[in-house]
Amino acid sequence: MQFTPQQLVGAGRYSATTRIGNWNEDLMLEEARMKDYRAQKQKGGLGTAFRQKMEQANGRVPHSFADDGVLRFNMYVTLEHLQTGGVLACDVWEETFTGSGEFVVSVGRPPSAASARTTFCIVSPTGQSGIVRYGDPFRLMANEALRVDGASLLPMLFLKSTLKTERSMSPVSSNQNVTLSVTPDTSTLWVATRADVGGAEKLLAASTPVRTNDGIGLLHKMTGQLLFADAKNSVATDFGTETEVCCLTVKGHGKSFNLAHEAAGARTSDMHARSSLSQNAWRLGLATSPQAAADNRRLPAPSTPESVAYLLVQALTTQHVFGLRQLMQSLQNVDASGGSGLMDREDLKWAIKACETEASLGLRDDQYDTLLNALDDGKRGFVKVTRFIELVRGPLSDARKSMINQTYDAVSSGLGGAVTLSALAKAYDTGCESAFRSTRSVDFMALWTTTDARGVITRNEFLDVYKDVSRAVDDDIMFEQLLKNAWGV
């Protein structure tokens, strides 16, 4: 068959494929990733990011110790896989697919000392402490050291599994998928069963303490499948070639003297007589010395509404000293026009995002949830605007309140009459803003609740405006100087 030169040149570039779904968005995403990759490569940041990942993932963490070898809630353990000799490990930087919010789990080589990616915390779904017994539900939480993000912690991750579907399955063996997820729902509940015994002994083990020398099976409570790993199912990760983890219950093919045991009364017909195989067998490992359990880490505190409010203030004030006041004034206008005093939490979230668009550090979605959940009474999806404003503003010290009142008195005396918006505009010195870093311009005169140029600015309104400005200035001397420079008093 003859081909034209154009066909020969273009043959490697074109192929007969059908584009379905959001193919254009996928193409744009790939182009954005490549652009980001090239930019990082040019700056030399690729090696730095990889090195930081390795240091954080393989960093030493506490490993719980127990003299009696009995497992308890809130202990840090390793999960040893008996067939491969490896340990359960995670990669919280590698999503199962982009945007899924779920992360890869595998069986890796056991480290010389407990590391962050191979150590999990056993958490009770009810928050209780005490001994873990066979049949008790629990969650396996990834180590907190993996969730450090600057001065805060990302939401915790829990071992999860869901029913196999045509869209969700393990990538190598096509079994029930196992991942890490931030949502602590029923899909993250597990139960320990005896994997090294069968028959009556396995049945009678229920409600007895789980010990570190027991071979156990980790039963997924929602689907009834055991945690599974097989050495033949290998996956490539940033940490080397490891073994895939999924959920699948496998048992031996035969029963041993089942009828004879039933006749003797030692076994019933509904007992699991077939033995579990090594692919389902695990061991929960504890430290061999108390020294390994010492926790010298300085982890950030979990996010609270107050800490998130502080981060929001920081994000807004990096743009301008009046950045916070700009947000507060827009919300006060919404509150005054709406009448109910309530605002849809999603609308509030996007109103904040609009103000922090140019900020160098914005809030994460989980931080928004922490902040708004505290204000959403009854989880109805609405937030009282005044409560949000009070939380973000925080308390105003008596010293600063006195400074603001003295400034208002001095301005009122200097004007020799009513303090109107037009009079303030003439008296205000914009040079006071030069002492503070700003990435955009803000018209201070547009930040007052009174919009009529002839309208009177009351003491309360003056105080209200400078409450927001005060939140952006940490030092009392700087705040006092700002007032003096602004009004020449």
TrEMBL record:
The record's Gene Ontology biological-process terms are: cilium assembly
Q: Which Gene3D superfamilies match?
A: 2.80.10.50, EF-hand
Per the record, the domain of life is: Eukaryota
Q: Matching InterPro entries, A to Z?
A: CF161, EF-hand-dom_pair
Q: Which GO terms describe its cellular component?
A: motile cilium
Tell me what this protein is called: EF-hand domain-containing protein
Q: What species is given as this protein's source?
A: Saprolegnia parasitica (strain CBS 223.65)
Q: What is the lineage of its organism?
A: Eukaryota, Sar, Stramenopiles, Oomycota, Saprolegniomycetes
